[in-house]
Amino acid sequence: MLNTAFLIRRQDPGAWRTALGYGFGLLIGLGLSAAILVWVGVPPADLLQEFVIQTFMTSDGLAQTLTASAPLILVGLASAIAMRIRFWNIGIEGQMWMGAIAATWVALHHVGPEALRLPLGLIAAFCAGALFIWPWMWMKARFGVNEVITTLLSANIAFLLVQHLLFGLWRDPANGFPITVEFPPASQFSTLGWGQIHTGLVLALIIAVILYVLLERSPLGYIANAIGFNRRTAIQTGLPVAAVSMIVTLSSGGLAGLAGAVILSGTEHRLSQALSSGYLFSAIVIAYLARSRPFWVVFVALALAAVYTAGNVLKVFYGVSEAVIVLAQGTVLMSVLTANFFSTYVIHFPDRTQRDGEPT
What we know:
The chain is mainly α and 360 residues long. Helix content is 70%, strand content 2%. It has a two-stranded antiparallel ribbon. Helix 3 packs antiparallel against helix 10 and helix 4 (92-108) crosses helix 10. The longest helix is centred in the middle third of the chain and has 30 residues, at 114-143.
């Protein structure tokens, strides 16, 4: 009887092998997604124009990409830091909703002086996101409840609360749609004079730098890595596992809540039902491709923002459906993940001449 092949994880894939894996996977994914788009009727000559030139090499396209990247950076960071300690935060969209609710409350009720209203809204959003993840963190620590289930279901609770507010107390009486009135200028980010780019992007980049220092250049990051590799061993060695886990998990929820506020105060300027659609998928993709490293989260978020920007152009000008855009995006993702898998693992085939019972 032949022995079954098995996987062996490389101890150190190396920077070159990892980079080649990402590059090869990206090329294959882009080729397959291009074939899909051509198949549905997009002219081949226009693909390069829309995905590269219009997205990165024109002023309007680059401005749209940078604007879209701000919340993606924040949700990517939220997912990445939770992954460091093996806490699977699948409730990012719910935390975004709660952060948006908190920011909207500050804006609509004119909380605090005008000069501090935007910072107060951002702080409230961060706190709301952190508080909304706290029960599920506590349930996992106290009773061992799987956080995948609790955080995922919590997103429905937050969305229903938003529905209640939009169809009730906060509904704009001058509008037939379930949206709030527009935020006052004091609760909006100031623009940077280039398209819709606002200071929320600067805030996201500053947070990424802070997290890079904390997770890559401080004891907090080393302890978080130890928890992620082996929580039980980290506890036995006397590391402050409970404290660091709480800080990281609450920060994950807080960053997701902050992302909701950045969307409202940066571009939407009002609360609606379409705030957080699709951000959970984006957050997980960014965190995984960036290997939970804040530095790379920024670049992956920027690349994903470019894909979304190009996808919106294809939908408007070429009539490509949302399903095809998602299929093309998913094809790129799966190709990169597959290539990354083979750069991380080796498939070992035992010697087929060995007889049963002999050691392999």
